[in-house]
Amino acid sequence: MKHFSDAIVIGGGPCGSFTALNLARLGVNVKVFEEHGEIGVPSHCAGHLSITGLKLLGLYPLPSRIVENTFYGAIFHSPKGKEFSVRLSSPVTCVVNRVLFDKHVAEMVEDAGAHYSLNSIVESLITENDFVKGVIVRRGNIEERFSAKVVVDAGGVSSRILRQAGLSASDPKTFVNAVQAEVENVKNLNPDMVEVFLGKDYAPGLYAWLVPKHDGKANVGLATNTGNPKKLLQKLMYNHPIASKKLHAAKLSRISFHPIPLGGPIPKTYSNGFLAVGDAASQVKPTTGGGVIFGMMCARVAAEVAYEALHKDDFSSETLSEYQKKCDEVLGFEGKVMLKTRRMLDALSDDRIDKAITFCTKIGLDKTLQKVEDIDFQGRSLLHMLWNPRFSVALLYFIFSYLSANP
Ligand SMILES: Cc1cc2nc3c(=O)[nH]c(=O)nc-3n(C[C@H](O)[C@H](O)[C@H](O)COP(=O)(O)OP(=O)(O)OC[C@H]3O[C@@H](n4cnc5c(N)ncnc54)[C@H](O)[C@@H]3O)c2cc1C
Q1: Per-residue model confidence as pLDDT tens digits over 253-273
Q2: Cα–Cα distance between 300 and 323 in angstroms, integer?
Q3: Cα(279) to centroid of ligand 1, in Å?
């Protein structure tokens, strides 16, 4: 084969690029194949990221042109318009322009010495003796074979490549269908708070969001496990008691649709000569659908494990299983807690959500949540808060609500 690299990454999204960045920084010869002609385009993401998460990845502060706003907390709205807000003393999250963010990471990758091949769709894996040995890439009408010692699938939610590597993809039943748009002319924006709209009436299976930017602009969207996301978004904009007051005159642009996997990581993320990262491996928070920070954390682990394998010249499933072990150490507990929380939230009726929001306000739960240090590692934060009487009471309330909905 005439084309050879140590490592090949499929997909130039944040997780593919971050894998390539970490590999290149370790001196590995790596090539990234991206099916689109421009990194970051088209974008399907709201770009709402935790500042602590970005810091852990060594990416914060970001250049100011990428960060469109920062937030001190969130306001949660019930379907009937009840409100519960949590405000911290300093910014905890930010909204990034995902196109610029992806391009920024890609620039770092190129500076570190890795190469992108754009307009290049990976059609299939090359497999020999049960080992992945490279990829077949189509550029227009031309098909070429590229070999590598290790191939990393960071191609997002599609399961085609995973299956070729002999791995099981996420169950599509755990996906929610999301719509994301930019809006202008939004009224009564809380400029430094993200707004979350809960309830099956508008966003069954997740929630709707309003992420303010500047000059009356915002990102708006929702994800749903049933029905048409665009119709639900219109319903939110025109019928929701609070959202309609903000959004009835707003103009939508850049509307995109994309699925989000909420079922937790796939059972196996490696095989001989192969690793899966990011949405491809469903490394997404089941509570919020956020996948950038967790996916990039796993991408860094994937790069370290691939580097070790190159060092030992051993690409067996056994050696690469370190990847899953290390990801589980960091995220396993978190994933399990978030999955349970998602199931509990899904079981609440809209009426219960209304009551729960009123209850949380009444017991002053916001004062407890103001002390939360980490919104990515929700399992750990939850454990810390168990000692807090307000939180324990709220937790019992949710468990009781869940049990009475699922006797
Ligand atoms: C509406 C919506 C809003 C979201 N909002 C947030 C948010 O606010 N915060 C957050 O953290 N997460 C959010 N997410 C989730 C987040 O977008 C994903 O978790 C994240 O983009 C995953 O990154 P990735 O690199 O794994 O995959 P992707 O970003 O999907 O990138 C995959 C890349 O691979 C390329 N590709 C795919 N197949 C091939 C192939 N065969 N050959 C070559 N290239 C290929 C694609 O073109 C793409 O560029 C949101 C998702 C949706 C749908």
Answers
A1: 999 999 999 999 999 999 999
A2: 10
A3: 6
